[in-house]
């Protein structure tokens, strides 16, 4: 077996894990705090990617700077969607909630298809995309490395926010007991609003990075919803540290299969779902 | 209540109606509580006691009627705003934060109220004085406590909001008789400290002994009113609630 190839696959997997973790913590935040399984989460990610693309095409804004425009824009979009739809289904059956978020996802996706069409869009001609480092035959691109570092900083920042700030304490209180939170003077709806908007913001930042890493189409979001969902399931709910490890595990597995297995690239997505199957079946043994 | 007209009203409820979905639970409740009083609301399961408290604090919306607490109308206010106005609520089922420590749970009562936060050290000392066991368990997660300890945390958390009116829902539920006694004694002490207390209880004997006034709730209406001593002697109460 070619060791360099193996190490390369491992490194690529680790670097990809950052972005997966970033998208997953946003999804987990909405599930954990609000109790909403947001199937439109990946579409926030897609909207972030295409906003970055459009900002580049129309105004020539480098994606590094569009991060600072896309983040508040997605926070606002999340807030608007929460206020106009999600807050009305908080007490509805879970199936209705999922259908609602699924529908929001389809609307966002088709709006994007209408505006940008189905072709992959590339942010062309940014100087740093080609930069990479060679360490003993293993190459590390600057862009994947930067996306890994930014993602890690944001995920750890979220962890710190949840564990050590008044807002984070309020989110944990609301997540653990809604009635209790209201009775200590928290406006539960406002905390939900901030959590949902923050969740969209994190996905949007991930989207800006995917717009540089790949050439996304408007359907890029749903794949990420499912991957994030897989990671959250593997991690167990309400567990930021678990998400880091789960993201690492599935991203490395994906990368290894894609690189080491003949024709493995076509199996990328299958890896995620094989892992969910295995984890869920394993858990059902443990609880019997 | 016709007594105690000289004292200011802590709570004034008129024609209150509320319910869940298509089911109406409260049918025109009138209730007066003077400042500093200890009032008990007794009644069987399903009489509407918990619904009454939940409507007072805005956890469920009122359908008709008015509620004035501490000189302020509560109609249409969120629970958070009611609490900010000096009304504490020890809810049914305690509603603690299971993954936070005892200390975090207790402090949460003051964390979101600027006035109460300033007085948090004093109030926390009072709570630990009232329930020394909580001091010992300060760092334990609330989810790992016994039922009695959870009840103490719930009361402590409500006291941290520095309430002038405290609504307490079934504190003796699930507690041993000895533990109920100490919870009732604590409520009496809180009342003696100047906090108006409205207690909902199925332990009729105990709450009538403690209360200045009491009302009997049946199927969402007030059926009897009187002082605690009067109701203890009342034939209907003795038959229906004390099995005498």
**Overall CATH architecture of chain A:** Orthogonal Bundle
> How many angstroms separate the termini of chain B?
26 Å
Number of strands of chain B: 10
Q: Biggest sheet of chain A, open or closed, and with what strands and sense?
A: 2 strands, antiparallel
How does the overall form of chain B come out from the CA principal axes? globular
In angstroms, what separates the terminal alpha carbons of chain A? 40 Å
Estimated helix fraction of chain A: over 70%
Plain-language structure description:
The model of chain A has no long low-confidence stretch (mean pLDDT 92). Chain A has one domain: ABC transporter involved in vitamin B12 uptake, BtuC, CATH 1.10.3470. Chain A is mostly helical and 288 residues long. Chain B is α/β, with parallel strands linked by helices and 244 residues long. Chain B has a six-stranded mixed β-sheet, sandwiched between helices. A four-stranded antiparallel β-sheet of chain B has the order 2-1-4-5, covered by helices on one side.
Summed up:
With 288 residues, chain A is an all-alpha fold. Chain A is 76% helix and 3% strand. In chain A, strands 1-2 form a two-stranded antiparallel sheet.
Layout of strands and helices, then pairs:
The complex is a heterodimer of chains A (288) and B (244).
Chain A (H helix, E strand, L loop, with lengths): L2 H32 L6 H19 L3 H22 L9 H23 L15 E4 L2 E4 H23 L1 H11 L1 H6 L4 H26 L6 H16 L4 H21 L7 H20 L1
Antiparallel strand pairs in A: 1-2
Chain B lengths: L8 E12 L2 E12 L3 E5 L6 H8 L7 E6 L2 E2 L5 H6 L2 E4 L11 H10 L2 H5 L1 H11 L1 H5 L10 H14 L4 E5 L7 H16 L3 E6 L2 H7 L2 E6 L2 E7 H6 L1 H6 L4
Parallel strand pairs in B: 3-8, 3-9, 6-7, 7-8
Antiparallel strand pairs in B: 1-2, 1-4, 4-5, 9-10
